[in-house]
Amino acid sequence: MTHPFEYEQVPSTCPENCPFLAMRTWLPKTLPFYCEKYETYLGATKLRRVERCAQCRGCTPEIVPTGLSLIEAYTPGLPIFEIQQAFLELSLPYQEMFVQFISQTGREVVLSYGEPFTADTLSARLLETWRDVREAWGSPEVVEFSELMTAASADVPLLTKGTQNLLLNLFQVLDNSEKEMMRNVMQSPQRAQAFLEKFKSQPKDNDLLKNTRHLLYDAEQKRREEEKRLQQQALLQAQQQQTQTAFIRQKLHEKGGR
Q1: Residue 75: what pLDDT?
Q2: How far is residue 87's CA from residue 94's CA, in Å, rounded to a whole number?
Q3: Which residue, 46, 149, 194, 212, is the most exposed by fewest CB within 10 angstroms?
Q4: How far apart are CA 24 and CA 106, in angstroms?
Q5: Is the pTM of this model over 0.85?
Q6: Using one digit for the tens of pLDDT, what is the confidence trace for 186-206?
Q7: Is 195 helix (H, G, I), strand (E, B) or coil?
């Protein structure tokens, strides 16, 4: 833990060039700021500066300031002030649940104009959002893809835990054909390694989803070309085998007729 005097000297916001600061703006209904080092979503100041997490600052987490900063990082245009007021009215257990849920998942727990901005409404929306996220992450296709990556990671060093988590997030916003491409990539250590070598160099910004799609289509094209090449090779080998067999039969026939 940092000494109180030293803590005063630690900036409360992340430097813009922090190598661990990643964007999640390509995920819908999700906070835009994520720390890859401490694996947590981050809040923001009133001026939209990214706030460091308690681990980064070396201090004890404070539930209320953290919750308010997480809400401050919500999508602009939402009733941020009103949601913050409802958060302040929550009981401490619900405030703790709120902070833990958003820090881990990044999902915005939102109240809309036209509904009561109360603790009861916010707590109900928190439970509802938590249920939606649990169902999404626990769906058969997500679980299957997660297990596929876990198995592949033994032969693919670049498939780290952090990369797996990022790919799981991406997987959930891909369409069905793109999900199949992603599964095809992970089914081959060679294809997975080649894909991840390109993927790791992609900026983790607004264009990550678009760039990942380009990488998937490129990988799928190469997979089909390789599949076609192997089919042609197998066909050629079969034809050669047939020709050789026919030649041997002809020779045997000629020998038998003598």
Answers
A1: 93
A2: 9
A3: 46
A4: 9
A5: no
A6: 999 999 999 999 999 988 888
A7: helix
